[in-house]
Structures are given as structure tokens and as C-alpha cells.
């Protein structure tokens, strides 16, 4: 079978490798669809502190079960179309006992990589915890977005959105920022303003339900003037919640300034390891800002996200802006580096 591997930062190669076989509790999938991810791009550019290279590439995918190991996997059989989140915690450590499985070291250490391939083996703990049946009316590519959308749904649980009252500013119109739009809208936000770049992404933000979209290229550098623009965008009110999705420290700092006094600020965008930023203490005390962060997800929120997708409560299909055969992986990398598309669908058999 063909499998795309990341050999070192900046270098990938499509290799022929044996089709994996399932052992006890495991399943093997024939991958039907995979999606690109911002984490993949960051890992391609600079590596990743939690991932050891060389490694199979890609972790957002869906497919059909072609093999089940000894000791059946409950409620699944060969031929079932499935979707999944590619991680699962150990279930018994200090963090797991406190419902913080996203902080369990086992979660990231055993993450399933290799979505840019024709087949993939799902380990027993992931199959037991975060493997789900894919409904027939849900596209394989949309099903492949279960993992990133679970991150967003989990992150949104830390934000107190008051239905019909909360004005929300989302900074960054990449895949994560865009997925936050329908999730926050579903929670009942009064008004959603998206601050981002690139026309395709801004159009997608509108399509997903943003009330106002602001192109950062046209924005003044003075933050005081930017606050005036936001005041107008929120129809004479200010933003109660700021969700930062760029992973740039300068934007983290700006997020605090753009937030209204008493607001909540979610710093969601991932930065490189060891990154620091300036945090004026007055923002926490005198301005009464609530600053939060979120990482990954716990199984409870994967199930919630699965239900949202299956029940058509959230439609993320506009984010998938192009489909490319796996054989043209070099073109996929060039498009990702250029940054014009949002998520690219990978067709493994082409």
C-alpha cells in the first residue's frame, strides 16, 4: 500500500509499505478520505515536540473496516463505514481519574498517524473509546473532521456564552477559527465577528454564519482605532468573548487589548514550544479579564461532536475547499505552504 511519510522537517516521501494487520481489539481501515491539518503544516515546517520523526503523516481520516483482530471490537464488523478521533487516554492515571484525559501522557504518545495512506491500523484503546459508525448521509470527508471539530467543541466548553447576549470576536480565519463559528452560533451568541485574512477564508466565514467579517489587511495598526471598528461591528456594543486562533504571540497580546473589560479571552491558537508572551497583570485584576486556554479534547466531547455531525447541527463542508489524489502529495504540500486553501481532502486511491 502507499503511505506518505514525513522523514524530517521539510521532507516527505510516498512509500510502499505492507498493509497492516489487526491484533486483539484492533481494527484495520481502508481509508476513504483524509484531511489536511494546521498541525501537519507546522510539523512539516519545524517538527513537533510530541512526534518523533520519521513518521507516517496525517491524522484526520475516515474509512471502512476491512479487518478486526481477535476478540471482537464491540458493535463493529468488517465492512462498517467508520469515523474516529485518533487518540484516547489510558483511563486510569491521575489526570484520567479527574476527567482530564487530554493531559494524560498516553493520549499523545499513542496518537494514530498515517491518515495519508490507503490503509491504517487503529489500536485497541482508540477503537474502544473514540471509534464510531459513520452514518450513510454523512460524507467521508466531513466525517474525517471529527478530530479537529472535537477540539473546538471541547474548547468552547470553557467559554460562557450567554444566549442572545454575548458578542464574540474570533481572531483567525484558518480551519480552527472557522469551525468555531458554527459551534459558537449553536451556543446562542448574539453576534459573531471574524477578523482574518485571505478572501476565500473570509467568504467561508460568512457562509458558516459570521455576522461581520473584517479583513485584517484593511485594519489600522493602532489598537484604539481597531477597537472603534469592532465597536461598530458589534452595533455599538463591545466584545464579551475573544477567541484567538492564530497561534501568534503578538495576536495573543492584542486579544487582551481588544477585549472589553470583564471579557473572557480564549487563547486557543497553538504556539511553538517554549513560547512566552507579555501578560499585563492589570488585565487580570483591574480589567477583570478571564484568560483561558484549551488543549485537545476528552472522550466525552468526541461523542458530543459526533452527535452534532450526525444530527446535522453543524455543517463544516465549506471548509473543505479542494480534493487532491494522494499521488499528487507534492502539490498538496505546495498549496498548504501557499495558504490559499483551507482544508484539502486527500483521496487515497488516486
Topology:
Elements: E1 2-8, E2 11-16, E3 27-35, H1 38-46, E4 55-56, E5 60-68, E6 81-84, H2 94-97, H3 105-109, E7 119-122, H4 124-130, E8 131-133, H5 140-143, H6 146-156, E9 167-171, H7 175-186, E10 191-196, H8 199-208, E11 212-215, H9 223-233, E12 241-244, H10 249-258, E13 264-267, H11 281-284, E14 290-293, H12 299-310, E15 320-325, H13 329-338, E16 343-347
Parallel strand pairs: 9-10, 9-12, 10-11, 12-13, 13-14, 15-16
Antiparallel strand pairs: 1-2, 1-4, 3-5, 3-7, 3-16, 5-6, 6-8
Structure, explained:
The protein has 350 residues and is an alpha/beta fold. The protein contains 13 helices and 16 strands. Strands 3, 5, 6, 7, 8, 15 and 16 form a 7-stranded mixed sheet that branches. Strands 11-10-9-12-13-14 form a 6-stranded parallel sheet, with helices on both faces. The mean pLDDT is 94.
Key traits:
single chain; 350 residues; alpha/beta; Quinone Oxidoreductase, Chain A, domain 1; Rossmann fold; 7-stranded mixed beta sheet; 6-stranded parallel beta sheet; 13 helices; globular
Amino acid at each position: 500500500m502507499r503511505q506518505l511519510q514525513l522523514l524530517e522537517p521539510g521532507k516527505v516521501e510516498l512509500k510502499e509499505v505492507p498493509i497492516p494487520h489487526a491484533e486483539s481489539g484492533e481494527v484495520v481501515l481502508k481509508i476513504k478520505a483524509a484531511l489536511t491539518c494546521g498541525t501537519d503544516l507546522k510539523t512539516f515546517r519545524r517538527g513537533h515536540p510530541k512526534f518523533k520523526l520519521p513518521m507516517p503523516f496525517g491524522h484526520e481520516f475516515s474509512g471502512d473496516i476491512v479487518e478486526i483482530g481477535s476478540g471482537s471490537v464491540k458493535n463493529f464488523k468488517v465492512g462498517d463505514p467508520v469515523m474516529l478521533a485518533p487518540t484516547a487516554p489510558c483511563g486510569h492515571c491521575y489526570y484520567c481519574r479527574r476527567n482530564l484525559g487530554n493531559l494524560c501522557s498516553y493520549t499523545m504518545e499513542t496518537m494514530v498517524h498515517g491518515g495519508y495512506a490507503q490503509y491504517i491500523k487503529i489500536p485497541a484503546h482508540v477503537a474502544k473509546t473514540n471509534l464510531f459508525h459513520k452514518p450513510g448521509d454523512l460524507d467521508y470527508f466531513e466525517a474525517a473532521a471529527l478530530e479537529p471539530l472535537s477540539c473546538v467543541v471541547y474548547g468552547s466548553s470553557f467559554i460562557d456564552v450567554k444566549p442572545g447576549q454575548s458578542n464574540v470576536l474570533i481572531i483567525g480565519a484558518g480551519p480552527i477559527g472557522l469551525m468555531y463559528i458554527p459551534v459558537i452560533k449553536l451556543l446562542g451568541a448574539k453576534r459573531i465577528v471574524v477578523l482574518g485574512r485571505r478572501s476565500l477564508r473570509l467568504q467561508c466565514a460568512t457562509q458558516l454564519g459570521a455576522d461581520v467579517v473584517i479583513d485584517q489587511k484593511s485594519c489600522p495598526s493602532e489598537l484604539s482605532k481597531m477597537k472603534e471598528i469592532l465597536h461598530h461591528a458589534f452595533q455599538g456594543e463591545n466584545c464579551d468573548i475573544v477567541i484567538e486562533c492564530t497561534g501568534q504571540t503578538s495576536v495573543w497580546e492584542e486579544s487582551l487589548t481588544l477585549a472589553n473589560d470583564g471579557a473572557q479571552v480564549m487563547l486557543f491558537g497553538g504556539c511553538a514550544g517554549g513560547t512566552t508572551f507579555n501578560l499585563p497583570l492589570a488585565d487580570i485584576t483591574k480589567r477583570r479579564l478571564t484568560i483561558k486556554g484549551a488543549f485537545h479534547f476528552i472522550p466525552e466531547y468526541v461523542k458530543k461532536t459526533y452527535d452534532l455531525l450526525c444530527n446535522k447541527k453543524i455543517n463544516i463542508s465549506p471548509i473543505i475547499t479542494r480534493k487532491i489524489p494522494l499521488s499528487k502529495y507534492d502539490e498538496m504540500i505546495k498549496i498548504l505552504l501557499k495558504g490559499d486553501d483551507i482544508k484539502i481532502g486527500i483521496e487515497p486511491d488516486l
